[in-house]
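Appendix B. Raw example, untouched.
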Amino acid sequence: MIGRCHLVLALSIAAAALPLCGQDLTVVSKTTVGDRAGTSTQYMTSTKSRSTDGQTDSIVEFATGRFLFIDHNTKEYWESSTQEMAAYFDRAEQGMKGNPMFESMFGGPDDIVVEKGKRSRKIAGYECDEYTMKMGSSLEFDLCAARGLDVPARYFEGRKASFAAMGPMGKRYAKMFEEMKKIKGYPLSVAIDLDMGTMKQHTVSEATEVRKGPIPASTFEIPAGYKKKPSPFGK
């Protein structure tokens, strides 16, 4: 069975990879994970994304599928790739064969639905429309997308190709990114509810500031002196 920490990490990667606009953006958000509140910043270009809460960073390279996770407390980092993650989730899929619980919670690869809500509200100065996306009975995303921040279609194709490698969950992520094309604009508010019975998690991220303008390449570099450690997706 997929480990809890790896499943939560996969969800966080998916959240970080939500649609982005055709220009560089820096989005500062108020975040709540369970009973913990804080601030996060996401730096986005057409090729990369970096999310940080001041303690940990995650960097995604869209074209290559390279993923970096940085821990500022320990001054360590690890990296993974589409190929390594595919191998890990392939092994996990073998372990879940014949287990009906997985599909009962997350549904089949095609059981992902995006519905547009009837309400709109303003977030960080942008008019946003509400959407709900469900993955089976255990995972729900509530989004509020800014119509004024457009999304390039090629972004979805790149993310879908990367997540398609993630075994049983990856097939669902591929469908998820396909369904995301129905969402008009960039989500400035994202609430994720995960309910696996003994494991429940509620995460909310809502933008408080949106800045447009070029982002320096150094933003996506690993801090000097940080030590590399093995990827959790390795053998």
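End of appendix B.
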